[in-house]
Amino acid sequence: MNKPTAHSSLIAVLLTILFTFALAIVGHTAEQPNVIFIMADDLGNADLGYRGSDIKTPNIDRLATGGVRLESFYGMMVCTPSRAALMTGRYPMRYGLQTLVIFPSHTYGLAAD
Q1: Residue 37 pLDDT greater than 90, yes or no
Q2: Where are the chain's structural domains?
Q3: Are the CB atoms for 97 and 81 separated by under 8 Å?
Q4: Minimum mean pLDDT among 61-65, 68-72, 78-82, 90-94: which range?
Q5: Contact yes or no for 99/81 (Cβ under 8 A)
Q6: In whole angstroms, what is the distance from residue 10 CA to residue 27 CA?
Q7: CB 95 within 8 Å of CB 110
C-alpha cells in the first residue's frame, strides 16, 4: 500500500511544479495595459463629441467609450501652468508659472535640466 501513496505523492509534486511553471509563463506573457494621456490646449469641457459637442471627434470618442476617463480634476486656464505641472509633477506656482503663457521671447521658464 505504500507504493500507491508514494506514487501519488510524486505525481502531486510533479503536477505542482508543472502548474507553478505554467503560472510563471502566463504571468510573464500577460499584456500590460496601454496608457494614453491626451493633453490639449484651448479645449473646453464640452468640445468633444462624446461630451455632446457638434465638433466631430470620432477617434477620441472611441478611446473615451472603450477606456477609462478621468474627468474629476481641476485644470489651469492657460497652457504654461498645465505643462509645468505635467512635466514636473509639482504645482506650477513652485516655479512661478501659475498665471502667464511663456512666449519664445521670454527669458524664464523651467530649467532644461
Answers
A1: no
A2: 1-30, 33-73, 75-113
A3: yes
A4: 68-72
A5: yes
A6: 26
A7: yes
